[in-house]
Amino acid sequence: MRNWLRPALAGVAFAMLGVGAFLGLSWAPPDREMGDVQRIMYAHVPAVWMALLAVTLNFVSSIAYLFKNTWKMDALAEASAEVGVLFGAVGVSLGAIWARPTWGVWWTWDPRLTTAAIMLVSYAGYLALRRFVEDPERRAVWSAVVAIISYVDVPIIWYSVKWWKSLHQVQSSEKTVDPQMVFALRWNAFALLGFLIFFIWSRYRIALREREREVALPDVLPSGQAGRVETSGAVR
Amino acid sequence: MTSAWLLVLAQQASDVSSRVGSGRIQGGWEYVWVSYAITWGALILYTIFLWRRRPEATTGQPE
Amino acid sequence: MSSAPLVKAVRSGNFVARILRDAALILGKDLLLEWRTRTRLNALIFFSFATLLMFSFALGPDTRLLEQNAGGYYWLAILFSSVLALGESFRVERENASLDGLRLVPIDARSIYLGKAFGNALLLMLLGVLLLPVMVALYGVTLVMGFGRLLAVLVLGAMAISWPGTVHSAIASHARARDVLLPLLLFPLIVPALLAAVKATTLVLHGDPMLQLDSWFGLLIAFNLIYWGLGLALFPQVIEE
Q1: Distance between CA C98 and CA A98 in Å, rounded?
Q2: Which residue range forms the structural domain that includes residue B46?
Q3: Measured between beta carbons, which residues in chain C are less than 8 angstroms from residue B1?
Q4: ipTM, two decimals
Q5: Contact (Cβ atoms closer than 8 angstroms) between residue C51 and residue C77
Q6: Chains meeting B at 3+ CB pairs closer than 8 A?
């Protein structure tokens, strides 16, 4: 029964995104100050929100893994980190692209954008760590530790960059937000949420299958050499 | 002490707004198109990536 | 009246004392090893000197610019050296499989963490102190707010790098591409500490008319406490089999 649910979700997400693009590009009015350039917001802001959600899920599943060592939690941590990096990369790129016509520069050390960029490097490091550790159990423990350390740092980074800059850039203030803009933003956010769930779910299944293959046959050397079974070797 | 901060703030604000120009930004649609293209591109490419690595398709394949 | 609470207090007091004592043992062992093979220490010192020198060349002879940014160069030199220092701190154990030996001895993993992390921090503090005259000479700065405050920044900054750095070093030393992995994991993480240390150092070097130094000290102390706590909680998981 559940076999159709995931693809259906993907279909719904794509459809919603299509509508969302129309809403953002045409239906919503242009901004009073930033004009049409502000339409980037409908893609940029939801992307960053989704990245934050994904990374939070990574944090929670990492803690869950340390308390109760289940491969499911490890697979979920891996999936949510990868998807988080994806959305984060999109979000940060769009942030830079938005900054250019708005403030004249590609980068402004804005606390939110800077924190997002640092987070991106952090979690890219997490993914690198996972790739460089071959033993599945150690990989799971160590990446859980790194995940917790990285996540706790996020609010600290945000505060420190804010103080460091000590002055805010003139940003579009939210004081009078057009209800049409709010609706378009929310719609796009939900569309991306659909993608987030679909991506993490799919990636989780892939990760879980990889874990099963790694752990199933103890006499086989870990991944990458599964083709050659060495009877002399590998007592883990 | 706060008056010193306010002066600095005002200076910064006038710097920024003098760069951007007062009132509306005209045009800039290229930036919008690139942004949406990146977003759509990333979502579609990752979907394809997930499809190709789906568990049903990779049984028996080496890592 | 039951004496159980008192016994518990004494026992927990003993527990903390034991942890600290074992940590001191680990620290002593590492320091002794370091002292006997001073080559690593010497290399580290020269590396950090060379880094400071390179910044001078790379960033031009404009002495005013160098003077303004001296704090930044100083901490970057310490940070880059820390990668070498941290990377080494578990190398001895890994090469001789003596981490297993350490674990077999009934030493709490937290003692190992405290001993190692403090050792790394001491090393960085030593580097910082040695770099000070070089910085003063190369960049023409003076310690407007005094050596004591600078020392405080140095101590807090060195520990801030060392608490999470020791955890990551233990992890990276057992992974592939360990030389790349350690800075990749560590650098984004300690950005807040770096910002605070550089800002605080700059203020100490040039004066603090707007009284911002305390905020940066606060950030450094908070960072230290958080990562000391996290390290203590997570390090045992890292080295457990």
Answers
A1: 53
A2: 28-55
A3: 210-211
A4: 0.87
A5: yes
A6: A, C
